[in-house]
């Protein structure tokens, strides 16, 4: 296996990162091509003051978990793990890698989490030339940490980068950078069952450009934050409203890639919906205004009998990794899964509806409001199919069941 020494936190001893490979080589190549571009945390650093200054729910007593790799106790960050919401809790370190236009990413470094400097004329600020990803790390009961399908995020980033005229890290560089960042912040991975470490890779045009053109320089950043449930309801029914006038994406646009501009476009409709008591907004296609697309930041599924239907990926819908995983899990459990055009009428007549995404995993829908008419699903809370698929996927992600799919990557 490949291995590289990284550091788990300010007071930790070096641990090792094991990659799923039958050959041994150093992680410092090609990602960290020389020592000047690899900045491991100092063992003399004191506890992260950046987080402490912004945390109102910190515990005085740190949590400790066993570390099977070193037979030592890992001291976790001093936060209230039992009341962890989905918000930014800055961790210790972030990863940064840069390259020029028409070049390849080759060298990266860890540095303390903090602000980054950009020219006012940066491509990402002026023309929205940027992408982001999202994935999670979970702590198992034996102290080891699991990633879920990071190579899928790497592939999706590369597809988006091609659409946005940006260079991107290779799949290997992306995955190795994620591993290095997670292990450098391992004390921020929540205890088992208390949440997950949300990992946010960013790729942006950081170089200055005035005329409309690709930026001359690009920056790849990874930062992390421990999180709880995305919706405050947790695994409880959410209430959606169907938006008929505002659209998240249009044919030929960028709705099928995870560009930053896709998400700013949903903020107004989402804010109005939340002010009226809805959890989020479900969008329709922009041409016929009758086919389902997706919720603001997650995919949607409709259940009727033993058939589970979800809108097909045709350029306006993001190919979610959780979506892809749920399709495979549902198929393996005997459901008939269809990727096709799904109408509003089918939505309203469904037995059950649920959403999927990295942040929400699986979120059951309790009601849909369309043109002022509210339709509710079930009478006992979470639908049977939603619960079954949620349990199957989260058990796999958290290492509670055998990973027969080969989707998880274990860090030790």
Summarize the structure.
The protein is built from nine helices and 21 strands. It is α+β, with helices and mostly antiparallel strands and 412 residues long.
Q: What's the SSE blueprint?
A:
Layout: E1 5-7, E2 14-16, H1 49-52, E3 64-67, E4 72-75, E5 93-100, E6 108-112, H2 123-127, E7 130-132, E8 135-139, E9 145-148, H3 150-163, H4 171-184, E10 196-205, E11 217-227, E12 238-243, H5 261-264, H6 267-275, E13 280-284, E14 292-295, E15 299-304, E16 307-311, H7 321-332, E17 336-340, H8 344-348, E18 352-357, E19 361-370, E20 373-376, H9 384-397, E21 408-411
Parallel strand pairs: 12-13, 12-19, 16-17
Antiparallel strand pairs: 1-2, 3-4, 5-6, 5-11, 7-10, 8-9, 8-10, 9-21, 10-11, 13-14, 15-16, 15-18, 18-19, 19-20
Helix pairs in contact: 3-4
How many helices does DSSP assign?
9
Beta-strand level of the residues, as a percent range? 25-35%
Assembly of the depicted chains = single chain
Biggest sheet overview = 9 strands, mixed
Q: Give the CA-CA distance, first to last residue.
A: 12 Å
> Could you spell the SSE succession in H and E letters?
EEHEEEEHEEEHHEEEHHEEEEHEHEEEHE
**What is the total tally of β strands?**
21
- On the 0 to 100 scale, the average pLDDT is 85
Poorly predicted tracts of residues: 1-30, 33-63, 67-71
Shape: globular
What is the SS-derived class? alpha+beta
Over all CA atoms, what is the radius of gyration? 22 Å
Family: Belongs to the class-IV pyridoxal-phosphate-dependent aminotransferase family.
Keywords: Amino-acid biosynthesis, Aminotransferase, Branched-chain amino acid biosynthesis, Pyridoxal phosphate, Transferase
Pfam families: Aminotran_4
EC number: 2.6.1.42
């Amino acid at each position: 296996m490949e291995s590289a020494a990284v550091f788990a936190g300010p007071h930790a001893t070096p641990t090792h990162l094991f990659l799923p490979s039958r050959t041994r080589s150093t992680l410092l190549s090609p990602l960290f091509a020389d020592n000047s571009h690899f900045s491991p945390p100092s063992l003399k650093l004191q506890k992260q003051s950046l987080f402490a200054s912004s945390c109102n729910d910190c515990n005085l007593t740190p949590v400790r978990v066993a570390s099977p790799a070193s037979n030592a106790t890992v001291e976790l960050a001093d936060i209230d793990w039992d009341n962890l919401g989905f918000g930014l809790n800055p961790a210790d370190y972030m990863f940064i890698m840069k390259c020029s236009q028409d070049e390849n990413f080759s060298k990266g470094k860890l540095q303390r989490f903090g602000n980054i400097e950009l020219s006012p004329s940066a491509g990402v600020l002026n023309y929205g030339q940027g992408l982001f990803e999202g994935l999670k790390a979970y702590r198992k009961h034996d102290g080891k940490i699991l990633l879920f399908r990071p190579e899928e995020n790497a592939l999706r980033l590369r597809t988006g980068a091609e659409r946005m005229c940006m260079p991107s890290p290779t799949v290997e560089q992306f995955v190795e950078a994620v591993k290095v960042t997670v292990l450098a912040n391992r004390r921020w991975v929540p205890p088992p069952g208390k949440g997950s470490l949300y990992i946010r890779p960013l790729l942006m045009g950081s170089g200055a450009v005035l005329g409309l053109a690709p930026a001359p320089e690009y920056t790849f950043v990874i930062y992390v934050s421990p999180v709880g449930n995305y919706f405050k309801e947790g695994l409880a029914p959410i209430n959606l409203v169907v938006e008929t006038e505002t659209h998240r994406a249009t044919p030929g646009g960028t709705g099928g890639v995870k560009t930053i501009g896709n998400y700013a476009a949903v903020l107004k409709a989402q804010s109005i919906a939340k002010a009226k008591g809805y959890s989020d907004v479900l969008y329709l296609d922009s041409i016929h205004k009758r086919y389902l697309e997706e919720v603001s930041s997650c995919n949607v599924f409709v259940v009727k009998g033993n058939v589970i239907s979800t809108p097909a990926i045709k350029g306006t819908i993001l190919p979610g990794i959780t979506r892809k995983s749920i399709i495979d899990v549902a198929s393996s459990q005997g459901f008939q899964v269809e990727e096709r055009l799904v109408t509003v009428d089918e939505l309203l007549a469904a037995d059950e509806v649920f959403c999927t995404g990295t942040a929400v995993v699986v979120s059951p829908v309790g009601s849909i409001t369309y043109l002022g008419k509210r339709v509710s699903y079930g009478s006992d809370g979470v639908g049977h199919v939603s619960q079954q698929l949620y349990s199957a996927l989260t058990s796999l992600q958290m290492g509670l069941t055998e990973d027969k799919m080969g989707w998880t990557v274990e860090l030790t």
